[in-house]
Design goal:
The protein contains seven helices and seven strands, in the order H-E-E-E-H-E-H-H-E-H-E-H-H-E. The chain is α/β, with parallel strands linked by helices. About 3% of the residues have low confidence.
């Protein structure tokens, strides 16, 4: 009996030792864990603070963008209001114009009736005038000023720009151009070439310059400093003007201003002009040719004629054959 009790007591003591050791190990583990827990908590706190700061920054950016969008929306709404006001004003203006237009229709109808009556009256007057003037033949002198016919609707100036003309006769040339323009109060077209066929205004090359007071003054102003090459022969300019501007439906006059015909055949030039300047059905030339001779050589070189007499012979013949007038100036002094 005593041996059995000793065995039981020995087993009970061993179990208590094991249990105590287990509890001791658990306590030791808890102590070890508690030592590192504050470090982890501090690290977590730092991370949370950084995350919060980042979220706050993103929130501020979002709030800033929201303010920008709000301002843009406000500006857009204001612009829409302004546009609506302008549209309303334009609609009111359109209604007013429409009302005025409708109110004017009655006046237009009345004006059309008056216009029709005027057309009929003009037709009757024209028929009566044609009947009364059927046998009337006006004196040719009625269409002439200073012996020069002024019935043309288009005029072309052909100006010798040689050195002799520039040096001795240029002021007189400007005076002659101005006086010729005054003879024609109004024409349908003007053109200015030199004796080589070069245009004063290249922007109007091969076309008519409209006649206005401003254009006339521009011609005189440009003439003062017009310096282009010349071979002292009007042939090229005359042929270029006829070839370019000849029109059987237009009345055209050429005005040639020169002092010399330096080379070439007079007969050849006359034949060339005859071939180009065709006659109308009544026998008159379509392009009248007038000429003014400047006595440069005679005055400047002590009575020497040089080749200026050839110019006079040529232009007298061309003017006579082409319905124009030849004028020989006695002096270079301005009148």
């Amino acid at each position: 009996m005593s041996r059995t009790r000793r065995d039981i007591e020995t087993g009970s003591l061993s179990f208590l030792d094991v249990v105590c050791c287990g509890f001791g190990a658990v306590i030791l583990l808890l102590v070890i864990v508690k030592i590192f827990e504050p470090i982890r908590l501090e690290e977590s706190h730092v991370e949370l603070e950084g995350l919060i700061a980042r979220y706050e920054q993103e929130l501020e950016e979002i709030l800033g963008e929201t303010e920008d969008v709000t301002r843009e929306r406000t500006a857009t709404v204001e612009q829409v209001d302004v546009d609506e006001i302008e549209i309303a004003q334009l609609e009111d203006e359109l209604e007013r114009i429409r009302a005025e237009f409708l109110a004017s229709l009655d006046g237009v109808e009345l004006a059309e009736e008056i216009q029709n009556e005027l057309v009929l009256a003009r037709q009757r007057l024209t028929e009566e005038m044609q009947r009364l003037l059927a046998d009337y033949r006006p004196d040719p002198d009625e269409y002439m000023v200073g012996g020069i016919p002024v019935d043309s609707e288009y005029i072309i100036f052909i100006i010798d720009t040689s050195g002799s003309m520039q040096q001795y006769a240029w002021n007189r040339v400007q005076q002659q151009i101005r006086e010729t323009l005054e003879v024609y109060p109004q024409v349908r077209g003007i053109q200015v070439l030199n004796d080589m066929g070069d245009y004063m205004f290249r922007s109007y090359r091969n076309e008519w310059i409209p006649d206005t007071p401003t254009i006339r003054e521009s011609i005189i102003d440009a003439l003062r400093n017009w310096r282009v090459f010349s071979n002292s022969s009007p042939r090229e300019g005359i042929l270029a003007a006829i070839d370019t501007f000849y029109d059987p439906e237009k009345k055209i006059s050429l005005y040639v201003y020169s002092d010399d015909f330096s080379s070439g055949s007079i007969d050849a030039v006359v034949r060339e002009v005859d071939r180009r300047n065709r006659l109308a059905s009544d026998g008159s030339p379509r392009v009248r040719i007038h000429a003014v001779a400047f006595p440069v050589y005679y005055v400047a070189f002590d009575g020497q004629l040089g080749t200026c007499d050839r110019y006079a012979v040529l232009m007298r013949e061309l003017c006579q054959r082409n319905g124009g007038t030849f004028v020989a100036l006695p002096t270079l002094r301005r009148g």
